[in-house]
Each structure stands twice: as structure tokens, then as C-alpha cells.
Write a structure and sequence with these properties.
- The protein has 126 residues and is mostly beta strands.
- It contains no helices and eleven strands.
- Strands 2, 4, 5, 6, 9, 10 and 11 form a seven-stranded mixed β-sheet that branches.
- The termini are far apart.
């Protein structure tokens, strides 16, 4: 069984940067698409970004385009989210997710991902 363990996150001021990491264990991570979701207090969980198993395709939610970058290192079984120019509205618990799949298609649907990390808090103060 694959497990996802997240690290990174924390508190920064507006305009700051953070990097989230998510390391998979149990099976080669290259077999999985990876994504990040977030959930702010009182709000529904929302899609942030996704990357295909090879890393050749990426997808971003409109509000993070140009500020966040998703990446993966399959030799380290690790998924990353680099977050620049952070805003208070980025404050949320961020979740790493994965879905075992063939091909390079990506989806924003929460239901498509059956593996979830433990979540990590990101707080951006003004």
C-alpha cells in the first residue's frame, strides 16, 4: 500500500515563498499522477495543481497560475509544490494526493485520487 508523507509548510508573510514536499513509499511513484488540494477554514476542499506520472503534463487552478509550480522527482518518489508570491487567501491545509494510472491525463476531481497525505498547514499573514 502506498503511503504519502508530507513535509514543508508553515507561516510566511504576504509575498513570501514556501515549498511543500510529499514522499511516497510502497510502490514506485512513477506509476502515479500527483496533485495538491487545499482546504481553507469554512470552505470546501479545492484543486490546486496536478502533474502527470512522467511529469510532462501539469495543470493549475487559475488563482495560482504563475505563482505556484508543481514538480516531481521520480528517482526520489517525491512530489513538490513551490509557492511564490503567497497571499493571505492561500492560507489553508494543503493535501498531497495521488492516483495510480496509465497515460498522462490529468483531472481536477477530488474523487479521482484515492491516496492522500496527512495535510500540512500553510498560513500567509498580511
Amino acid at each position: 500500500q502506498v503511503q504519502l508523507v508530507q513535509s514543508g509548510g508553515g507561516s510566511v508573510q504576504t509575498g513570501g515563498s514556501l515549498r511543500l514536499s510529499c514522499t511516497a513509499s510502497g510502490r514506485p511513484f512513477r506509476e502515479y499522477s500527483g496533485a495538491w488540494f487545499r482546504q481553507a477554514p469554512g470552505k470546501e476542499r479545492e484543486f490546486v495543481s496536478a502533474i502527470s506520472p512522467s511529469g510532462s503534463n501539469a495543470l493549475y487552478e487559475d488563482s495560482v497560475k504563475g505563482r505556484f509550480t508543481i514538480a516531481r522527482d521520480n528517482t526520489k518518489d517525491t512530489l513538490y509544490l513551490r509557492m511564490n508570491s503567497l497571499k493571505p487567501e492561500d492560507t489553508a491545509v494543503y493535501y498531497c494526493v495521488a492516483d495510480q494510472q496509465d497515460g498522462e491525463a490529468l483531472t481536477r476531481l477530488t474523487s479521482a485520487y484515492d491516496l492522500w497525505g496527512q495535510g500540512t498547514q500553510v498560513t500567509v499573514s498580511s
